[in-house]
């Protein structure tokens, strides 16, 4: 009982050393085994803001503005550039080599002949395309007409005719449905090095 009275009396006891700058606070709970020391926290006055010269502030803002304008100009300049494709680019060695055969000079007659050939080829391909489209339309019309006549004759034959034939394009695959695990396979740990190029 005397221990409890002692603890209650020591709950808010403050121990002060000889110097006025260091203070330790002692707090205790209901049991004397739970004595805890807490550090003293001293407040600090706020630092006074430095008054900057308006000219310096204006110069900083101008510098930021110029930097942003420069970045915007750089982005606008590179916006029309397409991402290069390594497979399509011509090697520099080939670009620097001199031509082994001189380019022939094209006369106006040859240029006119090439233009006429291009136009004739375009007309031929147009006629060929129209003929193919008309042939496909005739086949589809004949097929639909035959199906309509078949439906009038027999509904069962019509339903059998419109079913998909799986044997029309046979596809057969033979092989194991599950491969046994390989004892010598060393699985990766999931780490990789990204070597992809970045175009900014």
TrEMBL record:
It is found in: Mitochondrion. Its main location: mitochondrion. One of its GO terms (cellular component) is mitochondrial large ribosomal subunit. Residues 177-200 are annotated as: Disordered. Keywords: Mitochondrion, Ribonucleoprotein, Ribosomal protein, Transit peptide. Belongs to the mitochondrion-specific ribosomal protein mL40 family. This is Large ribosomal subunit protein mL40. It comes from Clastoptera arizonana.
């Amino acid at each position: 009982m005397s221990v409890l009275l002692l603890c209650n009396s020591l709950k808010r006891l403050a121990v002060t050393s000889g110097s006025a700058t260091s203070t330790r606070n002692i707090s205790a709970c209901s049991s004397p085994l739970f004595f805890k020391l807490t550090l003293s926290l001293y407040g600090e006055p706020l630092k006074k803001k430095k008054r900057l010269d308006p000219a310096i502030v204006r110069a900083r803002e101008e510098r930021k503005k110029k930097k942003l304008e420069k970045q915007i100009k750089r982005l606008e300049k590179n916006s029309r550039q397409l991402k290069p494709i390594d497979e399509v680019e011509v090697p520099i060695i080939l670009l620097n080599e001199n031509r082994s055969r001189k380019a022939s000079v094209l006369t106006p007659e040859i240029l006119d002949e090439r233009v006429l050939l291009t136009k004739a080829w375009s007309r031929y391909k147009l006629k060929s395309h129209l003929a193919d489209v008309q042939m496909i339309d005739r086949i589809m019309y004949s097929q639909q007409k035959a199906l309509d006549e078949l439906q009038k004759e027999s509904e069962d034959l019509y339903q059998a005719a419109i079913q998909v034939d799986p044997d029309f394009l046979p596809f057969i695959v033979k092989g194991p449905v599950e491969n046994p695990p390989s004892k010598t396979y060393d699985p990766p740990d999931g780490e990789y090095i990204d070597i992809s190029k970045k175009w900014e």
